[in-house]
Amino acid sequence: MKIAIVGAGKLGLKLISALVGGDHAITVFDTDETVLNKISQTYDVMTIEGNAKQISLLKDKNIGTFDFLIACTASDEQNIVIASFAKKLGCANVIARVTDPEHMNQIDFIKGTMNIDHIVNPDLAITMEIYKYLVEKYTLTNGIFSSGKVSMVQFHTRKYKKLVGMSMIDIPKELPGMLVVAISRNGKIIIPHGKHFVEEGDTLYVVGERNHILALHSHVYEKGKYTNLQKVMIIGGGKTGFYLAAKLAEFGIAVKVVEKSKERCYYLSTHLDDVMILHGDATDTTLLEEENIEEMDAFVTATGFDEENLLLALTAKEKGVEDVISKVSRQSYKDLIEKMGVDMALNPLDIITSIILHYIQGSKKVISSMLIQGQAEIMEIVAKNDMKLANIPLKELKLPDGVLIAAIHRGQQVIIPNGDTKILKDDKVTIFCLLSDIGEMEKLFTHKKTFL
Predict the structure, then answer these.
(1) What CATH fold (topology level) applies to the domain 231-346?
(2) H or E segment and range at residue 151
(3) Residue 28 in 3-state DSSP?
(4) Matching CATH number, 2-120, of 3.40.50.620, 3.40.30.10, 3.40.50.720, 3.90.1150.10
(5) Is residue 433 within a helix (H) or strand (E), and if so which, with residue range?
(6) Confidence band (pLDDT; 50, 70, 90) for 140?
(7) Is 144 helix (H, G, I), strand (E, B) or coil?
(8) What is the DSSP string of 114-130?
(9) Residue 369 has pLDDT above 70, yes or no
C-alpha cells in the first residue's frame, strides 16, 4: 500500500518504524529538513520537505493515488485540514490525530463535515486504559476472552498457588492443552519463554481450547471483583489528566488534579465539574502530604516528563498508595519500571500506533483484537499462503521476545503450537504481542519475497 505520513514527530517516527517492514511504500512529509535527512538515512522511505497544507504539494506528489494519509503534526487544526484536503484530492483513506477536548466534543461533526475517515486521540486512548484498570481492576470484562474455539482467562496467582515457582516448561503438565501467554508483574507485561518462572503476586494470562479454559475459569475467577475506588490524585493537568479527571468524576470518584501552570489550572477549573484543582509543584513532597497522598486509593502521574512521572510514582508507592499508574513514553525505561513496582506504566505512542495499524490492516488480516493493560495485545488473524509466518516451522520465524504465537484454530481443532508447528493457509492464528514490538509483528503479515 501507498501510505503518507505527515509530521515526523514522536508519533510519526513510531508509525514509520512500525510500517517500514511491511508491504508499504511510505512517504513522509515534514517542514524540518534536518529531521527528514535523519529519517532517510535510517529508513527506506521517501521524504518530502514542505507544508502538506499546500494543495499544490499534495497534487504534485499524486496524493490521490495513495491508500492512506496519516496527519500527525503537533497541530489539531493542521491535521484536520491536511486530512480533509487529501481526501478531496482522492486519497482513499485519511486519518487525523486530534487531541483537543474542544474538538473531541464535536468529533462526529468534524469527521462528517471535513470528510475524514478516522480520528485518533493518544490522550483519550491512554485515558480509557487507565480508567478500565482503575474502575474494573482487571482488563477482561468478565475474566475471559473468546474467539471461536480459542479462549483466554486472566487470574492472580493467589487463585492457583500451585503454579508459583513453576517454569513455563513445567506448566503444561499442570495445565494440559493450555499456554501461559503473558504475565503481569510489577506494572509490566512480560511475554514468557522457557526461562521464565511464575512468581507470587503475578497475574497470568492463559490461552487454550475453549472448554479447557472454561473449566480453569470456574476455578480461578473472582466474581464481582470491582474496585472500591473512592479517591484519586492525578499529577499533571494536560490533556490526559483532563480526560481522566472528567471520566473518573463522572463515575462518582473524588478527584484531585495537581498542575504547575496557573493558566492551565484556570482552564481546568472552568471545564471540569466536581474535580478539585490544585495549583502547585507535585515534586514538593510537602504539598502531597498536605493533600493526604497516603489516603489516596490511586495515584496517576501524567505530566509531559517521563522522569518526573516515575519519580512521583515511586514517591506514591513509598507512601503506601495501592494503585500507582504512570504515563511513560520512553521504551528505555521499561526495565526500570519493573524494578520500581509501579502498578501500571502506559505508553500512549504504543497504544495509538496499535489502533492506527489495525485500521490500516482492516478486517481482512485482523479479525479480532484486544488490548491488555495498555501494554500488549491479543489478536486473531487468518493466515494466507504468502505471509511470512506461513508454511515454515515456528522456530525458524525468529520471533522477537515480545511476540508469541499462542494458538492455532484449524478446522475443528485447536493447536497449542511448539517450535515444529507450521501455520497453514486459512488457519485462525491467535497472537500475543507487546505493543512495543508491534512493528516486528507487522512484518509477519507481509508477503514473502519471491525471486525469478
Answers:
(1) Rossmann fold (3.40.50)
(2) strand 150-156
(3) strand
(4) 3.40.50.720
(5) strand 428-434
(6) low
(7) strand
(8) HT-SEEE-HHHHHHHHH
(9) no
- Please, which residues bridge with residue 144 across strands? 153
Cα distance between residue 164 and residue 191, in whole Å: 17
CA distances from 443 to 22, 24, 230, 447 (A): 5, 11, 44, 9
CA-to-CA distance for 344 and 409, rounded, in angstroms? 32
Residue 366 CA neighbour count, 13 Å, CB half = 22
Q: Is the pLDDT of residue 146 over 70?
A: no
Q: Calculate the alpha carbon distances from 96 to 39, 134, 225 in Å.
A: 21, 29, 37
- Give 357-444's CATH code, choosing from 3.30.70.1450, 3.90.1150.10, 2.60.40.790, 1.10.10.10: 3.30.70.1450
Question: Which residues, 6 or more positions from 176, have their beta carbon under 8 angstroms from its beta carbon?
Answer: 212
The per-residue DSSP string of 32-85 comes to: -HHHHHHHHHHSS-EEEES-TT-HHHHHHTTGGG-SEEEE-SS-HHHHHHHHHH
Q: Report the share of the chain in percent with pLDDT over 90.
A: 48
Distances (CA, A) of 256 to 108, 175, 248, 266: 30, 45, 10, 14
Q: What is the CA radius of gyration of the chain?
A: 23
What is the per-residue pLDDT across 298-342, written as a single tens digit (0 to 9) for each? 999 999 898 899 899 989 989 999 889 999 887 777 667 666 777
Residue with C-alpha cell 515444529? 420
Length of the chain in residues, anyone? 452
Rounded to whole angstroms, how far apart are CA atoms 139 and 370?
A: 10
